[in-house]
Amino acid sequence: MRQAVFDDRGSAIRWTETPGEEPARVYVHGLGSVSAVYHAHVAARPALAGRRSLFVDLPGHGISDRPEAFGYTLEDHADALAAALDSARVSGAELVAHSMGGAVAIVLAYRRPDLVARLVLTEANLDAYPPLTAGSADIASFSEEEFLDHGYARVLDRVGPLWAATMRLADPRALYRSAVALRRGSQPVMREILAGLHTVDRVYLQGERSGVLDGADALEEAGVRVVTVPGAGHNVMFDAADAFVGAVAAAA
After folding, report:
1. What's the rounded mean pLDDT across residues 133-141?
2. Is 219 helix (H, G, I), strand (E, B) or coil?
3. Segment holding 53, helix H or strand E
4. Dihedral sign, CA of 181, 248, 18, 52?
5. Phi, psi of 203 (to 5 degrees)
6. Helix (H, G, I), strand (E, B), or coil: what is residue 192?
7. What is the pLDDT of residue 69?
8. Mean pLDDT, the chain, integer
9. DSSP 124-140
């Protein structure tokens, strides 16, 4: 485990790392998740093994610190992730990022283009105010005080055992603020940033069960490879690990 300070209070963002060839492959989790839980099983596959791999937990999640005064906006998360990569002496990395982590990775590529050469995004949030069926919508439906008082427990009961297993490791305040920030989106919005990242190799993985990706044609015209993974839902790396590994390996 390694760590880097990401604010003026000494709070640390942490990650686990496996050695290997450069450029590094950096795995970033979604809202209420943990990077190693969602990605270690695919990173160990022969097609992906052998590369230096970092499994980073964003602030407020997993093994990273959870400062109460932190904003937990997409920009805040991206800057913390940049601190981790700077400390690890990583540049020109391939970011494999899921859901909210994909939105953070897009913002990072915009703010720190030296750090990112490739983006492999799994059902990343591209727009502000995602559908009401999104997990962030349920969390953000409370006020912060309500969520801390009783909303966190209610959401844990509703999300099912898989997501709850990692959401229990997230700080409730950080979880709430991250969800609200995700629904607010970045400036410019993530979809606009992604379309304009012409120097970055970009792949977007969409689970077939999640439906057709809105604006897929426009993204393809902008140079983003949109791959629909048969039989998969939002968690493509669990639902179709072979296809997920193949798509990530093809991006290399």
Report:
1. 84
2. helix
3. strand 51-57
4. negative
5. -130, 135
6. helix
7. 96
8. 96
9. ---SSS--TTSHHHHHH
